[in-house]
Amino acid sequence: MLHASLRFGRAGVAWLLLVGGLVLAGGSYLAQADEPQAADKSKDKTAKEAKSPAFKPTGPMTLKMKIVSQDPDVLEMSKLINDKLRESWQANNIVPSHYVDDYEFIRRASLDIIGRIAKPSEVATYLKDPPETRRSLLIERLLKHEDYPRHWANLWANWLLTRSGDFGRGKYHDQMTVWLEDQFAQNKPYHEMVTRLLTATGSNADNGAVNFFLAHLGEPVPASKRSEEGHFEMVPLTSRITRVFLATQVQCAQCHPHPFFGSLKQEAFWGVNAFLRQVTRKGGAMPRNQQMGARPDLTLVDDPSVNVDANVFFEMRNGKIRMWQAEFMPQPGKERGTRMEASKSGLARREELARLLIEHEMFTKAIVNRMWGLFFGRGFVNPVDDFNDNNQPAHPELLAELSDRFKHYNYDLKKLIRWITHSNAYHLSYVANPTNDKQEHETQFSRMIMKSLSPEQLFESLVTATGMNTGTPADKKRLRDEWLGQLITNFGDDEGNEVNFNGTIVQALLMMNGKNINDAISSDKGMVVQAMSKGKLPPAIIRELYIAALNRPPRQKELANILAKIPLRAGFRDSDRARYEDLFWALLNSNEFLLNH
Q1: Residues paired with residue 299 on neighbouring β-strands, in sequence order
Q2: What H or E segment, with its residue span, contains residue 313?
């Protein structure tokens, strides 16, 4: 049971928060001010006006942000995004939402770029920067932060390996994450990273990149056909490569022509598949029911003695068996792709696959769309990995230009992040107005779309907010694996995606009754004790708890509600400590904490 519930009741605090409006429910700060709290009264006024039929939104105030980057491409590309979106807003009679204040921005940018909320010390540093440059300076600090490569490695490990099966967590997943972290720490160009993934060889004990192939080999080919067709069917890998790197779900063409992509016949799927048929694994069959950390080392190799002709056989809808040679995906609108030279063998086949993949028109569009979706809550095409004839991109000219410039600037992911985060649209509030409040308006990016935190973001943010002592790096990893195991079991799927768990009973029970979070809140070294030990008055202590949990101070109405309904006194008293712990617990269980807005 939760000890503090005997005093005030954590359920009681949650009720208070709902009544007092502390849970995120349509309120947001307005445009940037030197002291963000100054927007409170304007926010309340705008919320009331928006309910009136006569409301005529005037749009956001000017975003006072000076770009500090010396690279001219940041100004050039952020302006391109601004101009293209503004033209679309005007053409569709849309007035964009207001800009978020500095507090909300540091939380948003921190979650998106380094995968956790900001620490109170980071908020303080940020607010000391000059108002015109603080947002741009923050973006640069986050891109250089040690948590940047960790966050992006976690994201990509899940996209590449998914969250299920032998590679979904544990030793093999960790090997891939370590390899990816090194790539992001060096800011390797995206096309080089993908090439290394597709041409990786050797033991996964030495090269975690091989786990991408090892995770998706599919069913073994019967021994009698192995010499002609290769060791594994490679069906899952064919689907994963085209889905992740070309944003095309070519698996829909495995058994029949693609239902939503007129140019993709069965040959498109099996032509890519044929590039992979000489790949095999050394290390024996995958063990079952074995501890994740005790799994055997595996080796990825190419066997030129099998599938010499690079042919595959597939069954057509009429029941006939057809043979097809290695041929890469056709460009959009084309019927045929590029055939591989029959003389290529062994690793050369995968090298050719990587070359053709990178040269494909969809390669840059896929990553730009995926990155845009991460930062804005949806891509130009949504879902981000499903371009097809019936799912055309919003703002095709902007997507094409961003893709071309991304290639021109050597596939630099940090540059792409700078362009997106310096655009005006990235600084807009999630709060809608009557001109952009419909679901169909989401494609206009005239307001931010709220996103649930991923399990990794949730864990790292809880550790950050509570000041939890996680011990050694190994201790933290064990704790993280334990928490993620619970969260992923409840909220993940076998494709590495997260479902929206905001407001579900499972999520509420998991958060409210979790021993780790309650221990962290009640710790003698935790955030509550740290705030109380400074000898400050209750309003100052409450402010510190808000900054730690929500990266913002309490609004005047919130503070008044808390002080009126929770008896708090100056000085360090155990009874008050329990009440502060209840308050902090409720903040961590609020929608405002669980959502990236």
Answers
A1: 203, 282
A2: strand 311-315
CA separation for the pair 143, 209 (Å, rounded): 23
Indicate the Cα dihedral angle 387, 388, 391, 395, nearest 10°: 60
The DSSP bridge pattern shows strands 595-596 and 202-203 to be unpaired
- Can you give the pLDDT at residue 500? 42
Q: Which residues contact 306 (CB under 8 A, 6 or more apart)?
A: 226, 227, 228, 229, 230, 231, 277, 278, 280
Rounded to whole angstroms, the Cα distance separating 306 from 326 reads 14
**How far, CA to CA in Å, does 12 sit from each of 394, 420, 520, 546, 566?**
45, 41, 20, 18, 10
- Please give the residue range of the domain that contains residue 362: 217-394
C-alpha 135/C-alpha 576 separation (Å) is 37
DSSP assignments along 458-498, one per residue? HHHHHHHHHT----SHHHHHHHHHHHHHHHHHHHB-TTS-B
Which stretch of DSSP H or E encloses residue 185? Answer: helix 171-185
Residue with tokens 């996964």: 204
What rounded mean pLDDT belongs to the chain? 84
Beta-carbon count within 10 A of 533 CB? 11
**CA–CA separation, 142 vs 3, rounded Å?**
38
If you search the block for the tokens 């079952």, which residue do you land on? 288
Q: Is 277 among the domain residues?
A: yes
User: Does residue 209 lie within any of the structural domains?
Assistant: no
In angstroms and rounded to an integer, the radius of gyration of the C-alpha atoms of the chain is 26
Whole-number Å distance between alpha carbons of 325 and 64 = 57
Which amino acid makes up residue 164? S
Q: For residues 17 and 590, what is the distance between their CA atoms, to the nearest angstrom?
A: 8
Model pLDDT for residues 352-386, shown as the tens digit of each residue = 999 999 999 999 999 999 999 999 999 999 999 88
Shortest CA distance to 220 belongs to which of 300, 277, 298, 143? 277
Helices (H) and strands (E) in the chain, counts: 26, 7
- 591 closest CA partner among 107, 24, 28: 24
- Full-model pTM: 0.89
**Looking at the 3D structure of the chain, how many domains does it have?**
1
Is residue 298 in some structural domain? yes
Beta strand 279-282 pairing with 311-315: unpaired
Taking the alpha carbons at both ends of the chain, their separation in whole angstroms is 32
Residue 507 placed within a domain: no
Contact indicator for 482, 411 with CB cutoff of 8 Å: no
